[in-house]
């Protein structure tokens, strides 16, 4: 099994011993892409906006950039995990998620957490994708 770390240009600096994304060869001309939890933090470490909708859009765009680095797209995503600091934002985030995954309809989990690593962030999203080489 071969694996390759993914770090697209302009991505937020990582805060530990992990990768923004990981491309793993699983054989039979297939690869899995694991995208670590993305938050609404720019490359300077600043939270991009205060509202959940803007943060969600920003995070989905970050995920698209990481997938693109692996030669994949949101259409290749099979699983999403969305963490919210306020579950009442479910009704605001769900339509945004649905817009980005209109074609692929991955399985998805959305849960409330007490806080996220960066103060001011209201959402964190991680995904798993599978693509053919």
Tally of DSSP β-strands: 6
- Kindly report the spatial arrangement of strands forming the biggest sheet: 1-2-3-6-4-5
Helix content: 10-25%
Give the overall shape: globular
| H-E order | EEEHEHEE
The N- and C-terminal alpha carbons lie at a distance of 14 Å
Mean pLDDT: 88
CA-based gyration radius: 14 Å
Query: What amount of the residues lies in strands?
Result: 25-35%
Assembly annotation: single chain
What structural class do the secondary elements suggest? alpha+beta
Number of helices: 2
Main sheet overview: 6 strands, mixed
Describe the overall structure.
The chain has 133 residues and is of the alpha+beta class. It has helices spanning 52-69, 90-100; strands at residues 3-6, 21-27, 30-39, 77-84, 107-112, 123-132. A 6-stranded mixed sheet has the order 1-2-3-6-4-5, covered by helices on one side. A hairpin with a 2-residue loop joins strand 2 (21-27) and strand 3 (30-39). The longest helix is centred in the middle third of the chain and has 18 residues, at 52-69.
